[in-house]
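Worked example 3 (structure in, sequence out).
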């Protein structure tokens, strides 16, 4: 491990600890335990089950994208790789550790690391795109939430997505961008951008495939939003599902930025800030966000068990 990576890890841990301290300053631990104890076991089990099903559907989505790169593996193999990736995303310092594991596994099985990376990038991008679409659609139905604190982030995210789409699907624009980047950025960065561009271009005219992926992605993201709704319902909170569609995608996007350990602290504090707009108290919002995250952690444990029990990669067919 290099000095730079050690420092990066320490910074993330420091930010996480600071945010957890802010989290604890806003709530009494006894109150948190009391609120957590309010949720029924049925709601807990349902939340974990919904998250688990969303992971299975996520593997279906990724299977379709791999086929777009002409990588055809048995679904059971893809499911195993996907669940292991989800596990490592939750339990490593970096939020992309599981993606690195997926690339490694694909390279071990097929020797096609670049194509695997392209499919993983598209998997992430389509998930992000779907979240933003849901967020904007739900936000449009709630004019009372139209404040600068929400309008500006949504506008910025929409512009970012539009820029990525233009870069990925326009040969002329992406070619010009790469030529400019080659003069200003390190070769490793331009090489990565080239891989991303190549991955997008593979899907550019695959309309049927993209439609099927979009349908699955919509179900995946709705399921993950529903996990928090189920937890809130189990705690007795009367918040409409449309508010979860506005807030949870924003929280998920911000928490995915690798500035803390697994988004801990970011998720809870931002959740408290946003749900306060619809009358949810800070202790209740913090407890709901923490329990929703915990449901995802429990659901991802299947990937850890799979990682321990699966055969070594050098024993699997290539």
């Amino acid at each position: 491990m290099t000095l730079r990576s050690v420092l990066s890890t320490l910074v993330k841990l420091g930010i996480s600890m600071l945010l957890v301290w802010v989290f604890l300053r806003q709530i009494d631990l006894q109150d948190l335990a009391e609120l957590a104890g309010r949720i029924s076991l049925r709601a807990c089990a349902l939340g974990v089950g919904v998250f688990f099903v969303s992971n299975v559907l996520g593997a279906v989505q990724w299977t379709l994208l791999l086929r777009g790169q002409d990588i055809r593996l048995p679904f059971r193999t893809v499911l195993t790789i996907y669940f292991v990736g989800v596990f490592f995303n939750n339990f490593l310092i970096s939020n992309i550790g599981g993606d690195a594991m997926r690339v490694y596994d694909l390279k071990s099985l097929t020797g096609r690391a670049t194509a695997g990376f392209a499919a993983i990038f598209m998997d992430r991008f389509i998930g992000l795109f779907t979240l933003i679409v849901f967020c904007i659609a739900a936000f449009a139905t709630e004019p009372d939430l139209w404040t600068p604190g929400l309008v500006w982030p949504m506008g910025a995210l929409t512009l970012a997505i539009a820029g990525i789409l233009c870069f990925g699907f326009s040969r002329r624009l992406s070619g010009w961008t790469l030529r400019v980047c080659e003069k200003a950025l390190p070769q490793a960065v331009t090489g990565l951008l080239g891989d991303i561009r190549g991955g997008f271009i593979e899907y550019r005219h695959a309309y049927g495939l993209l439609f099927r992926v979009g349908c699955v992605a919509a179900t995946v993201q709705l399921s993950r939003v529903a996990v928090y709704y189920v937890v809130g319902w189990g705690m007795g909170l009367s918040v409409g599902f449309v508010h979860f569609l506005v807030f949870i995608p924003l929280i998920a996007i911000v928490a995915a930025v690798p500035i803390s350990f697994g988004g801990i602290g970011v998720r809870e504090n931002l959740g408290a800030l946003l749900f306060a707009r619809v009358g949810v108290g800070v202790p209740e919002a913090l407890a709901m966000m923490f329990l929703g995250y915990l449901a995802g952690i429990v659901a991802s444990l299947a990937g850890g068990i799979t990682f321990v029990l699966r055969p070594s990669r050098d024993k699997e067919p290539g």
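Notes: The two ends are 30 Å apart (CA to CA). DSSP finds 13 helices and no strands in the chain.
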